[in-house]
Write a structure and sequence with these properties.
Blueprint (H helix, E strand, L loop, with lengths): L7 E10 L7 E8 L4 E6 L5 H8 L7 E9 L9 E4 L11 H5 L1 H4 L7 H14 L15 H15 L3 E5 L7 H14 L4 E5 L3 H7 L2 E6 L4 E5 L12 H15 L4
Parallel strand pairs: 3-7, 3-8, 5-6, 6-7
Antiparallel strand pairs: 1-2, 1-4, 8-9
Helix pairs in contact: 4-5, 5-6, 7-8
């Protein structure tokens, strides 16, 4: 479907921290289709970020993880992942352009620095920051900094993009605009997004899972047939309420 794209099947996954008597996750089954957005919701501490860290190969030896992960091409996920976090993580001593190009410093490819710079400038234009390439992060608003982080994620050009609440710290209008921009610029990628916002989940998800229970399992919810990013109509409002109903069960 897409060049170098990855789909993932996660089967019977369980996770337990070694200093805990209770597993955080158990019996998690999840399909992450090629070229689509898979969105995860759930209460704090249910294991959402841990799933992302597992996919990224970032779990430490304090976590026992069991389960089966199969990729659509049979290859490992190593070095095929871009990770966008809630914090923009920009280096304050570098300008915007150098922050976007940061990943290329650690790349094993022998790319031309001039070509890399031009590509970064093109990405900054895509995210509406063409005039800010030589500004420092401290000169930018929160929304602008997250757009730089998005450009940096795109600069890595990985087939799998993991996003951990990347828009949660933004005001409603900026968040809405960045959701739309991300859906447009990542339309050929396989994306896994964590959010606490049911409206954001409904706007962006092709596949939607609510992590629920103790230990948590993944409950799949059907989304509207319309393509993301969706206009928030009555069908979307009904789904938002269904998500809230599912989430509230963990607080009863």
């Amino acid at each position: 479907m897409f060049a170098n794209a990855i789909g993932i099947q996660l089967s019977d996954a369980s996770l337990q921290y070694k200093d805990s008597q209770t597993p955080t996750l158990a019996g998690v089954n999840m399909t992450i289709p090629v070229g689509q957005w898979t969105v995860l919701l759930g209460r704090s501490g249910c294991g959402k970020t841990t799933i992302l860290r597992y996919l990224a190969g970032l779990l430490d030896d304090q976590v026992d993880w069991h389960g089966k992960l199969i990729t659509t091409d049979g290859a490992a996920l190593h070095d095929r992942i871009a990770y966008m976090a809630q914090q923009d993580l920009l280096l304050p001593w570098l300008n915007v352009l150098d922050n976007v190009c940061l990943s290329s410093r650690f790349s094993h490819t022998n790319s031309n620095p001039a070509d890399e710079k031009q590509r970064a400038l093109n990405l900054l234009e895509h995210v509406g920051l063409a005039d800010y390439g030589y500004a420092k992060p401290a000169q930018l608003s929160g929304g602008m900094r997250q757009r730089v982080a998005l450009a940096r994620t795109l600069m890595q050009d990985k087939p799998l993009v993991l996003m951990d609440e990347p828009f949660s710290a933004l005001d409603a209008v900026t968040r809405h605009k960045l959701q739309t921009l991300s859906a447009e610029l990542l339309k050929d990628k396989t994306v896994v997004l964590i959010t606490h916002d049911p409206q954001e989940a409904v706007r962006l998800a092709h596949q939607l899972y609510v992590l629920q229970g103790t230990p948590a399992q993944a409950q799949h919810l059907n989304v509207p047939d319309s393509p993301p990013p969706r206009l928030l109509d009555g069908e979307c409002a009904t789904l938002q309420q269904a998500i809230l109903d599912q989430l509230e069960k963990d607080y009863e």
